[in-house]
Amino acid sequence: MEDRSMASPATHAAAPLREMKWSPAEKAVARRAFDLALRRELEAVVREAKDRATKIQEPSELWELERWLAERRHEIDRKYDYRYSVLPLVLAALLNEGRLAEDDLHGLGQDKLDAVRRATLP
Amino acid sequence: MEDRSMASPATHAAAPLREMKWSPAEKAVARRAFDLALRRELEAVVREAKDRATKIQEPSELWELERWLAERRHEIDRKYDYRYSVLPLVLAALLNEGRLAEDDLHGLGQDKLDAVRRATLP
């Protein structure tokens, strides 16, 4: 069986995410962007929760609010995964959602920016 | 071993809850009181949920609100048990909490009122 990681050693094929090396400066940039997006997302959930609570008219809507909060919590737990092996995918998702701008990633190496771009929707 | 249910057949000992017979009129009174208390309790939860949401300042308080709603839901599910075999105990608990007044039980037979009173805190 062919070893695909050896297939084209001269074409500068993208390094697998797991093999990327993150410098301390890159880690600081990534952490700042990650925390910024998380804070923005949590603030948006706070605003929407207050709005939903204000509009409750029927008791059944209490349990809809409870379910909606649980869904937001699970979604946030799932999305904000800081392992370096998946971080470019996470950052790409946050760009796609508009939680981050390209400028927020300034300072990442080209290999990380390329990986983010590959995972960003056109 | 002595059969305690046979101990004093002439003293009008309280009938076990499970053996009480509920007339259609008594069932209607009980249902109305039960539904009234449940509606009052749910309205109180709606009011408090709105108040709690208004006061949220930190994202962590979102999950406190979620947990509080889940606790209220479980507590209400547990408390509002309409089986006739436990209904006098349920009505007694609702009197104790101030969700019902004695007048709300007007129309129940003396055996049910006695059972409610026995279960009501002094």
Structure in words:
Two copies of one chain form a homodimer. With 122 residues, chain A is mainly alpha-helical. In chain A, helix 1 runs antiparallel to helix 2 and helix 3 crosses helix 4. The N terminus of chain A is likely disordered. At the A-B interface, helix 1 and helix 2 of A face helix 1 and helix 2 of B.
Rg calc of chain A: 19 Å
Regarding quaternary structure, how should these chains be classified? Answer: homodimer
Please estimate the helix content of chain A. Answer: 55-70%
Order of helices and strands of chain A: HHHH
- What overall geometry of chain A do the principal axes of the alpha carbons give? elongated
Give the largest interface pair and sizes.
A-B, 19 and 19 residues
Tell me what portion of residues of chain A adopts beta-strand conformation: under 5%
Count of helices of chain A? 4
Residue runs with pLDDT of under 50 for 5 or more positions of chain A: 1-11
Counting helices, strands and paired strands, the structural category of chain A is mainly alpha
Could you provide a short overview of the structure?
Chain A has helices spanning 24-54, 60-79, 87-96, 110-119. With 122 residues, chain A is mostly helical. In chain A, helix 1 runs antiparallel to helix 2 (60-79) and helix 3 (87-96) packs across helix 4.
